[in-house]
Amino acid sequence: MNGTTFKTCSCRDEATGKKLGKTCPKLRRPGGGEWWSSTPGRWAYQLELPAHADGRRRNPLRRRGFATLEEVEAELEHARALLALDEDPHVQRKVTELMLWCSRTPRRCRRSKKYGARSAPDRTSTPP
Ligand SMILES: [Zn+2]
């Protein structure tokens, strides 16, 4: 699946009030053309997703708010790897739905991860 990383910021167009997103000129290095500036903005990624069962195209997965290129690339690679787990389109759709559920409710996913980390030492300290 095709995935891209890019930078976004919260600057708005003075005339229209619309968010500039990845088109903000401050995100580019002066005279650097396609190079992203290292300072302002946050990293984001977009990943193409498998189509619906009836063949309808699905909107790509978009996540933003990463501090570094390393972070955003790691998460994009992780998402790609999840989709590559199985070639069966049915399995891919199930994985996709789970990923979308997680990205809609990130707090719930983070909490369940934390719970897993906390419960491990508790178990070892339980008396026999
Ligand atoms: Zn900006």
UniProtKB/TrEMBL annotation:
Residues 107-116 have a biased composition (Basic residues). It comes from the Bacteria. Residues 107-128 are annotated as: Disordered. This is AP2-like integrase N-terminal domain-containing protein. It comes from Nonomuraea jabiensis.
